[in-house]
Amino acid sequence: MRPTPSWPLPHRPITLLALALAPCLGSLAAAQDGTDAGSEQIAAQQPPAVTITLGTSASYRFESAFDSGMSDVSVARIGATAEAGFLVGDASRLAISFGTEHSFYDFSPMGVLVPGGVDPYDTIHDYSVGGRFTTRINDTWSALIGGGVQSSGESSANFDDTLTYNGLIGATYKINDSLSVGGALLVSTRLEDDVTVIPVPTITWNIDERWRLESKGAGLLLSYRASDTLRVGLEGSFERREYRLDDMGPLPSGVVRERRVPVGVWTQWKPAPNVTIEGTLGADIYVEFESLNSSGVKFAEDETDPAVYAGLALSFRF
């Protein structure tokens, strides 16, 4: 899986849904319960007036076969994020972030998503910029609003045609010191499709001193604190990406959509207070690809066998 990046990217996302939501909903939870799970903490402990977070990640999804039996696909990804956070008053925070991700696909022995049986693409570039404002309204309520713009496609695609825009608004309610629930509404443009509006429920539940259940992007993470520096857990989520293809390729200015449901083992190690290392290992239990031409008409759709993945992420916070 993709380890979590900053808004509006990727952990991981509506483009890149899981990636866009993970840091935003984490910040919302932190605002109302006073904890720091990798996002801003706003309540009980006063955070620094300015924070800088830098991150990098890499993942690999091993080869899996398309159901049509005509091709296999694997993908390697690398990414980087940078975020600046600013304290606003005593209970609010503004964050501005930038992110990039590069995906390297290998289709073999032939492509199934575009005409001619050739590879539909090999390298996809994602760039994003966005912001969010998180505030603790009172002892029980907190809120978040954010938005951003993202470019996703091949390097030779028309840049204007790679852009999507998204906005997010959400709120959480602190039931007690251990449990907070809430929700967010994500609105996003899409490539060759209508605007998407998606409601996302959220939860942060410190079950006891060691166990925690929390929202992570469009999914859940159940983790166990093995020591002061190490947490391990199980996670599952939904990821969706879409890419604009080269305007001179076999499907000129077309779009490929990719949907995955990753389930796996997660671990987080903090060797120092400002350093976090995360690792993941699991399988995409559902993978689907869909290609469309430049007018939004579907050309092909195919699923693959489950795909094993592994990922590693490193972040520094100052």
The level-1 CATH class: Mainly Beta
Output the helix-strand order. Answer: HEEEEEEEEEEEEEEEE
What is the radius of gyration? 19 Å
* CATH architecture annotation name: Beta Barrel
Largest beta sheet, briefly? Answer: 14 strands, antiparallel, barrel
Distance between the termini: 26 Å
CATH topology tier name: Porin
Poorly predicted regions: 1-22, 34-44
The global form is globular
Strand percentage lies at: over 45%
Helix content: under 10%
Provide the residue-averaged pLDDT: 87
Beta strands, count: 16
Number of domains: 1
Annotation field: number of helices? 1
Strand order of the largest sheet: 1-2-3-4-5-6-7-8-9-10-11-13-14-16
Structural class by secondary-structure content: mainly beta
Question: What's this model, at a glance?
Answer:
With 318 residues, the chain is mainly β. The protein has one domain (17-317): Beta Barrel (Porin).
Describe this structure in words.
The chain contains one helix and 16 strands. The chain has 318 residues and is mainly beta. It has one domain: Porin (Beta Barrel). It has a 14-stranded antiparallel β-barrel with strand order 1-2-3-4-5-6-7-8-9-10-11-13-14-16. The radius of gyration is 19 Å and the shape is globular. The chain starts with 16 loop residues before the first helix and ends with a strand. 44% of the residues are buried.
